[in-house]
Amino acid sequence: MLHLRSSQFSRVMVKLGPVFSVRHLLVLSLAINVSLMLTVIRERVKVEEILNMFSTKLQLATVSPSTGDGETTDNGEAIINLDHGDPTMYEKYWQRMGDKTTVVISGWQFTSYFSDPKNLCWFLEPELAEEVVRLHRVVGNAITKDYHIVVGTGSSQLFQAALYALSSDASEPMSVVSAAPYYSSYPVITDCLKSGLYKWEGDAQAFDKSGPYIELVTSPNNPDGFVRQSVVNRSGGILVHDLAYYWPQYTPITTPADHDLMLFTVSKTTGHAGMRIGWALVKDEIIARKIVKYIELSTIGVSKDSQLRAAKVLRAVSDSCGVAHPFKEETFFGFSHHSMESRWMLLREAVNRSGIFSLPEFTPGFCNFWNRVFEPLPAFAWLKCGDGIEDCESFLRGHKIWTRSGRYFGVSPSYVRISMLDRDRTFNLFVKRLSRIRSQRRMRLEHVD
C-alpha cells in the first residue's frame, strides 16, 4: 500500500493524468484511503492493547479478591478493594470443616420444577425450610411459628418481590423510603425497572408525601451498624425489615424479631454469597403468595442445587452450636464473633493512631445467645474523614484503598463504607496502611515528641 501526503498525491495525479482514466484515479484514491483506514485501525488496536495491559496490571496489583491469609509487606502499590461486602472472611472456617458440608447431586436429581406442590412456596425444598426454622430457634433471632417461608435468589430478589407484592393493588405508585444512611442498592433496585407500582422517594426522615408508602428498615443497618426502628410511623405505611445482619457475630440478639415481613440471606449469615440463597418470613398469606408469584414469573423458582447446599451449611452451623459451648472458636458463631471482635479492635487502634478518621460509638447490649454483654461488631465500618477532607472516598483512593462514598447512602461524601469481611491478608494490610495516614497536626506533635 502507498502512504502519500496530500501534496505528494496531487503532484502524482498531475503526472499520471494523461496515462490514467478517471476510473483508474478513483481506484487509486480508494486504495490510498483504505491504507489510511488500516493505519488508523492498527493504531487503535495498539492503544487498546496498552489499555488492556494496564487493566491487567491493575488487577494483578489488587489485593482483594485474593488468596491466602499470610502477612503482606505493604509497598503502597497494591490496591486494597473494600468497596464490596464480599464475605470471604468465612472461608477459613469452612476450610476447617472439610467435607462436612460437601454435597453430591446425581444427574437424575432435581429434574422437576416442583419441590413441594402442596406448599404455598412450591419451589422451597423441605430440607431447607427445616434448617431455616431450626437455625432461628437455635439463635433466637426470629419467630418462625405461623410464618410462611419463601426462598429467593438472595435477599435482593426477595426485596423486589416484596415491593411487587405490597404495591400490586395500589391505585398509584407507592413511595419507597428508608432512613439515611440507607443501603446504597435500595434506590437502584427500586427504580431499575421504572415500575408504575412503586417509586424511590429517598430519606424516610425527610419524607412528607401523603398517601401509602413502604418503609425499609435495615437492622442492624447497612452501612453504619446501628439498630433501627421505623421513623415515618403514620397510617398507610407498610414495613419491610431487612435483617441480614441480625446474627450474633455482628450484634447482640436481644429479642426474637417478630415483624410482618422479614428478609434474611445466607451470604451474611454463613458467608456463602455465591449460593445466592435468601429467605423471607411472611405473616400474611396473601402477601406471601404474591411474593411467590413474582419469583415464579421472574425465574420460575429458585435453584434446588443451591437450596440443598444451603440446607447442609445451615445444618452444620446449628450442629456446631450443639457440640461445644457457642463461644468456642470451633463453633461457627464463636469463630465469626471472635474474628469480628479482633478486627474491630485493630481498626479502632488504626483510626486512633491516624488522627484523621472517626468511627461510630455503639452502646453495648446483652445478647441472649451469648448470655453476655458486648458492643455491636458491624459487617461494615462507617468511617468519617476529618482534617478538612470533604471527599473521603477520593482521599482514600489516593492511598489505593477503595471504599464506597457516603453519597451513595444518601449522606455526606465525608463518610465511606468499608467492608470488614474480606480475607485476613487484605484486612491486615488495610489497617496497617490506614494507621500510617496521619493528620498534619498529629505528625507535628509526634515530631516534637
Computed structural class: alpha/beta
CATH class of the largest domain: Alpha Beta
Major sheet: order of its strands?
2-8-7-6-5-3-4
Supply the CATH superfamily name of the largest domain. Answer: Type I PLP-dependent aspartate aminotransferase-like (Major domain)
Can you tell me the overall shape? globular
CATH fold assignment of the largest domain: Aspartate Aminotransferase, domain 2
Number of domains: 3
Low-confidence stretches: 1-20, 39-61
Whole-number average pLDDT? 87
CA radius of gyration is 28 Å
Looking at how many chains there are and whether they match, the oligomeric state comes to: single chain
Series of H and E elements: HHEHHEHEHEEEEHEHHHEEEEHEEEHH
User: Count of DSSP E strands?
Assistant: 15
At CATH level 2, the architecture of the largest domain is 3-Layer(aba) Sandwich
Distance between the termini: 73 Å
Largest sheet: 7 strands, mixed
InterPro entries: Alliinase_C, Alliinase_N_sf, Ethylene_sulfur-biosynth, PyrdxlP-dep_Trfase, PyrdxlP-dep_Trfase_major, PyrdxlP-dep_Trfase_small
Transmembrane segments: 20-41
Protein name: Tryptophan aminotransferase-related protein 2 isoform X1
GO biological process, one term: amino acid metabolic process
